[in-house]
Design a protein that fits this description.
Elements: E1 14-17, E2 20-29, H1 37-51, E3 58-64, H2 69-74, H3 96-109, E4 113-120, E5 127-129, H4 145-154, E6 159-162, H5 164-177, H6 191-197, E7 201-209, H7 213-229, E8 244-253, E9 260-261, E10 270-271, E11 276-279, E12 285-287, E13 292-295, E14 306-313
Parallel strand pairs: 2-3, 2-4, 4-7, 5-6, 6-8
Antiparallel strand pairs: 1-3, 5-7, 8-14, 9-11, 10-13, 11-12, 13-14
This protein binds zinc ion (ZN).
């Protein structure tokens, strides 16, 4: 039997090594195959490095324009499954994303910092996802929060969101209550979570709507800013751009077919307490539990998927630390 997945082409990475010591950065595009901004921005950055308009002097940068070649070829979000879930090393690969994931994990382990470039469905302002505060907890122990906050702040986008994995445990609890198939917490692990597990730090940049040509421009600026922030190139450190930092604190799940997000809200939009953000299939409205923000509203979720996440203004990660 043929395995066409294995013919989906090699995983391409392009590396520039400075001759002076410095941090090792990896930049990923197209973890999801229907998000062209990453490949476009990364290929431009590769050309910049080749032409000398970006001169890598210190450390190392590895560009992976297309992290999921099968999904990219298909122009779909996923190949066999979402590469940005359950990303970890698997000695016995059972699908395409397991196979590509093993190689991606090996690459991530060679680096200190990850910039993962994405876009989203629907309208909304670009934003950056980052990770937890320094902590010694069980879920996501971490010791590089200051470096990560500085990276998130330098990219050029005004909205930062954190609390993904904590919120994911709430999704698992609701699924358990609804008697839906159990998911492991590792399902919540994507590129950034694996990178933190492997000792690095990482951000996910969401550059805007999938097909907005401006999204690639935002990605390209973010790459240049990151190279300056880490001083891989000789350039002033970028000004901190984060204005609103949002902590994800709740998740609304589709508990029966017909539950859906409602209203004009886009990711990052502020909503007042009591505003209708979703409606259950029986017509009952779901309102914002307090003043906060809507994240990833979905007007056609499947059973057990998120209708939307809900966040509040966060105290941390204001970006002030980036100047240090
Ligand atoms: Zn994506």
């Amino acid at each position: 039997m043929t395995k066409p997945d294995l013919d989906d082409g090699p995983l391409e990475s392009v590396r520039f090594t400075g001759l002076k010591p410095g941090p090792k950065l990896i930049v990923l595009g197209a973890v999801h195959g229907n998000e062209p901004c990453g490949p476009t921005a990364i290929r431009r950055a590769i050309e910049d490095c080749r032409s000398g308009s970006l001169k890598i002097l210190r450390g190392e940068v590895t560009f992976v324009p297309v992290a999921n070649p099968k999904a990219w070829r298909q122009k779909t979000r996923e190949g066999d499954r979402n590469l940005n879930r359950d990303l970890r090393e698997k000695p016995l690969a059972s699908d395409y994303e397991d196979r590509i994931g093993n190689h991606l994990c090996a690459l991530l382990r060679q680096h200190d910092a990850l910039l993962d470039i994405h876009s989203f469905r629907g309208e909304g302002e670009p934003f950056v996802f980052f990770g937890p505060d320094d902590n010694r907890g069980e879920l996501e122990p971490f010791a590089r929060a200051d470096e990560e906050a500085a990276l998130a702040s330098c990219l050029g986008v005004a909205i930062g969101i954190h609390g993904w994995l904590d919120n994911y445990t709430k999704l698992l609890a609701i699924r358990a209550r609804l008697d839906l198939p159990r998911l492991s917490i590792t399902e919540g692990y994507g590129t950034t979570e694996f990178m933190r597990f492997a000792g690095g730090y990482a951000v996910t940049l969401e550059c805007g709507t999938h097909d907005d040509p401006q999204a690639a421009e935002i990605g390209h600026v973010a790459i240049r800013n990151t190279l300056a922030q880490l001083q891989l190139i000789e350039a002033p450190k970028p000004a901190a751009a984060l204005r609103d930092v949002i902590e994800m604190v709740e998740i609304l799940l589709c508990e029966q077919a017909g539950d859906a997000a409602e209203g004009p809200w886009r990711t990052g939009d502020a909503v007042p307490a009591g505003a209708i953000i979703a409606r259950r299939a029986d017509g009952a409205p779901v309102t914002a539990p307090r003043d906060g923000f809507v994240i990833f509203p979905n007007k056609a979720p499947k059973l057990g998927e998120a209708i939307c996440h809900f966040g509040i203004a966060a105290k941390r990660g204001s970006g002030q630390r980036s100047s240090s």
